[in-house]
Specification:
This protein is mainly beta and 266 residues long. It has one domain. 14% of the residues lie in helices and 51% in strands. The protein has helices at 214-222, 227-243, 248-257, and strands at 8-11, 15-20, 25-29, 35-40, 45-50, 56-62, 67-73, 77-83, 88-95, 100-107, 113-122, 126-135, 141-150, 155-164, 171-181, 187-196, 201-211. Strands 1-2-4-6-8-10-12-14-16 form a nine-stranded mixed β-sheet, with no helix packed on it. A hairpin with a 3-residue loop joins β1 and β2 (15-20). α1 (214-222) crosses α2. It is globular, with a radius of gyration of 19 Å. It starts with 7 loop residues before the first strand and ends in a 9-residue tail after the last helix.
């Protein structure tokens, strides 16, 4: 079928193909399907909403100067974008408990850009997150920021790769992972990897896994808050930086998720 912006969507029982013509613009919510292929034409712009619950695969091919904003809420998926010259993809993700998520950006054209912004907030279960930024062309830029809070027995495993190829000069790439442990049995582990094959790049990575600051909790309680309320204030502050960079279409919904269920019952 075709929508008013001439976006072509072919939906089958197992695969959906979305073709975004040159200069077109649209917001698309993905139907329930196993595989998705998106082809973004030159100077096109699309916001994708992915709420599928079952594991699925997504491939995106982006032509020159195209822009994709991809919002993922509560789904397990394997996603990959091949980003052309001066094109840009922004992945924004909320990982639910027990989800398995892999997001890969292949910066294939000069001036290509990628941002991966993700949050998780769980009381139980084990979340597995993988992010990859592969620089194949010069003057490409990639940023990864993952933040999460784990309560009770929740666990998270994070794996990340930044790779800069030999001929990819003057690239910039950053990778940041922050996990806040609330529960006594909560755990987080991170495995960041950087592979740089030339000297003309700027790369950095940072990993932080720690407990909530008890002195700050005590201070907030001295101002009249319960322990649970104080923890939720700190959780919201922990997520504020990344939420402010989320797409307006989902930021409000994600803001409502940034408190641990049951934590106020002290």
């Amino acid at each position: 079928m075709k929508n008013n912006n001439r976006i072509e969507i072919e939906t089958g029982s197992k695969r959906t193909v979305i073709r975004i013509p040159d200069n077109a613009s649209s917001t698309i919510e993905l139907p329930n399907t196993r595989d998705v292929l998106i082809i973004a034409g030159k100077q096109s712009r699309a916001t994708i909403i992915d709420k599928m619950q079952k594991m699925h695969n997504v491939e995106i091919f982006m032509k020159e100067n195209s822009i994709i904003i991809y919002n993922t809420i509560n789904s397990s998926s394997s996603k990959k974008a091949v980003i052309g010259k001066n094109a840009s993809v922004k992945w924004m993700e909320y990982y639910n408990k027990n989800s398995v998520s892999s997001t890969t950006s292949i910066l294939d054209g000069i001036g290509a850009e990628s941002k991966i912004l993700g949050i998780f907030l769980h009381d139980s279960g084990k979340t597995q997150i993988t992010t990859n930024s592969i620089h194949k062309a010069s003057r490409t830029n990639a940023e990864i920021i993952i933040r999460g809070v784990l309560n009770q027995s929740a666990k998270n495993v994070y794996k990340a790769l930044v790779r800069v190829d030999t001929k990819a000069l003057q690239c910039k790439s950053s990778q940041e992972y922050n996990a806040l442990l609330i529960g006594n049995e909560s755990e987080a582990v991170a495995f960041p990897v950087i592979e740089i094959e030339n000297d003309d790049v700027e790369c950095r990575h940072a990993v932080s896994i720690g407990k909530i600051d008890k002195e700050k909790i005590f201070y907030l309680m001295s101002r009249g808050l319960t322990e649970g309320q104080a923890k939720n204030v700190m959780i919201k502050g922990f997520f504020e930086h990344i939420l402010n960079r989320m797409d307006p279409n989902i930021r409000m919904n994600l803001s409502e998720m940034t408190s641990i269920r049951g934590i106020d019952n002290d």
